[in-house]
Amino acid sequence: MAVIRLKDIRHSYAANPKEGADWALKQMDVEWQDGGAYALLGPSGCGKTTLLNIISGLLTPSHGDVWFDNLNVTSQPADTRNIAQVFQFPVVYDTMSVYDNLAFPLRNRKIDEKIIDIRVHDIARMLDLEHRLKERASGLTADGKQKISLGRGLVREDVNAILFDEPLTVIDPHLKWQLRSKLKELHGRVGATMIYVTHDQTEALTFADQVVVMYDGQVVQIGTPIELFEQPKHTFVGHFIGSPGMNVLQCQLDQGKAIVAGHQIAVVNTLAAPDQLTEIGVRPEFIKFSKNGMAVDIVKVNDVGRHSIVESKMGDHDLKIMVPEGQPIPSDGAHVIFDTAYTGFYVDGWLQERD
Amino acid sequence: MSLILENVVKRAGPDTHIYETSVEFKADGFNILLGTTLSGKTSLIQMMAGLERPTSGKIWFGGKDVTKVAVQKRNVSMVHQQFINYPNYSVFDNIASPLKIAKMSKSAINERVGKIADLLKLTAMLGRNPSELSGGQQQRTALARALVKDADLVLLDEPLANLDYKLREELRDELPKMLADRGCMVIYATSEPAESLMLSGYTAALDKGRVTEYGPSAEIYRNPVNLKTAQVCSDPPINTVTVEKLNDRIKINSEIFWTATNDQIKLPNGKYTVAVRAHHVKPSGNEQLLVKISGKILVTELSGSESVAHFNFDGATWISQSHGVHNFDVGSVKDFYIDTYGCLFFDEQGRRVVV
Questions:
Q1: What is the ipTM of this complex?
Q2: Residues of chain A positioned with their CB less than 8 A from the CB of B279
Q3: Sequence-separated (6 or more) residues with CB below 8 Å from residue B276
C-alpha cells in the first residue's frame, strides 16, 4: 500500500527525442492516492500503456521520477515493486486447476498454505468461481479464464497497486455488464489502489472515482465522472466522453462576443489572441428546441431507443441534439437554444475558466 | 438484389448451429444480424458467402438458387472482426488486390483506390505497410479492400468490435452513408443492440440458432413479437417479472400492483410476463403514475451522461438506467418507479400480447 507519485515524467522511445512528436509521454505530474479507484482513459496510441508500464517498472522513463510513498523507485525493477498487473487476454496455466492458478502468486511468495487456502476461497467467492476450484483451467470459457486472471491479480494482500490493462476487451457485451459490476464491487472490498486502463468510457466512468483522460501523450483532465461530463477542460474530453460527444463549433470573436453562424453565443471570459483557435463546446444533451432560438436545418433523426439523436446544420456547422424518448421533434423551421450553464468557450482546445 | 433464406438448417455433427430458418432480407439499406456469441451470426454469414453449405434448405440471391455456388463464383466481399491484410503489401496494394485479380486497368485501379482511400481517411497511409498502422487504420484498410470492388453482397462480421470506442462511433455513422448508393446488399453482424439501432435499417434478432424476428431495427426494438426478441434487442438486459391481471388491476404481488392502462385493461385476465426496459425503471417519479418498487442496490454504473443501478427485486436482479449522474449507495435500499406505459406483456409461451 502506498501513494504513487509520478514527478515530471517524460518518455520517448526515440534515442534522441527532438520535436514534440518524438515523445510518447510529454510531461506529467500525477499523484495516485492509496486505495483509490482510477481509470486511465484515452484512444489507442495516447500513451496509456506506456504510463502503466512506467508505474509497474516494465519501463524506465527517459525523464522524471516514480515515487512509492517516500521511496524513489524509478530505477527499481518490476519484480521488486509489488504491483499486480492484469492484461487484456487471459493468462492462465491451462494444466493447473482453478485453485492452483489462484494460489500461484501466493505460493511464489512462500505463504503458509493455510492462509493461501483462506485467500483463494475468499477471492473465488467474490468472482463466483468457488464451485469450479477443482476443475482444470483449460475447461473454462474465455470469460471464466479472464476471471482467473483477475483473481490472480486480486489474491495478494500486500500489493502497492493493481493495474488492469483493458481487461474486458474480449468479453461479450452481455458478460461485460457482469464483470464490470464485479470489479467495482471488488474495489470496495479489497481496498487496494486500482488503475484501470481502457478506451471505453463506460468502463472508465463506471469503475473509477477519478478518471485520468489522456490525449496525445498528455493528461488533459483528471476529474470525477460528473466533472468530465459537465465541465470538459479540453475539447478532446468533450468529444471523447459522451455518446455522441460534445458539439465543437468554431467561433469568431467580435468585440468580446462569440459568434457562430451569425448568432451570438452567451459565454463568459472570451479572451483570446487573434491567431488562436476559438471554439464553443456544447453537449447534445444541453441543446433544446425552442421557438425563440437559433435556426437549424434538420438533416436526420436517428431513433436509438431511449432517445433520438437529431443531426442538424446551424449554418455550416454540424450540430447534434439529443431528444428524450416521447418528446416531439419539429419537422421544419426548427430553432434551438443552448443551456448557458453548460456551454463552454475554448481557446486552442482548452476551456476558459469562468472566473 | 434480394437475398432469401428458405428453410435453411445447419448442423455440424450432433450440434445444430441454425434451426430451420426462412428470411427474406430487404434489398435496400442495411441488414443487421443481432445476437450474442454462438447465436448463429457467423454460421449464417458463412452460408451467405458460400464458404459453407446448409445441411438442408436453399439460399436465393438475385432470384437465383446459389445454395451450391462456390464463394469464388458469387461476387461477395467480406470483412471479419479480426482484420486481415497482406502484411508484405503496401496499403495501396492491399486495397487494390481484388481489382488486380479482376484484371482492371492501372488507371482505373488508381482512381478507385484513391476514391475509397479518401472516404476511409487512408490517403496519407497508402505507401505504408499494415504493420505500421494502428488497429483502426488496419481495419479501415480491410474495409476499403472489401468495398473497392463492386460486390453484389457485402458481408461484415462484427467489423468494428476490435476498434476504439470513438472510432466505432465514427465508422458506425459513416458506413451506412458509404454503402448507401452502391446498389449492393449489406449484411452486418453485431452483438451490440445499440449498434443495430444506430445503423438503423433492418434487423434479424438471433437467439441460439433461431431468428426470433426480422423487421425494421427500431420497430422490433419497440414492438417485439416475442420475449426472446425483446431480450436480444436490449442492453442493459431487459427486466422481467410475472404479473397477474385481474380486471383493472395488474399485480406483481399482494402489495405491489398498478391500475391497468387503457390498453392493458383489455387483456384477458390471467398470468403474464411483463418486460420493462432499464430506462423505464426510474430512480424518481410520481407514485400516482408509476409503480413503486424497492430493492437493495447491488452495483452502480456510469456511462457518459447516464447512470445505471442494479438492484434486487422479486428474487431477481433489476436494472434502472437514467439520465444524469446519480450516486446510489451500494448496499442501501432504494425506491424505483416502473413506467407502466413502457411495460411489454407476454404470454406463458413468451409471445407478445397486444390488444
A1: 0.80
A2: 305-306, 325
A3: B238, B239, B240, B241, B338, B339, B342, B343, B344
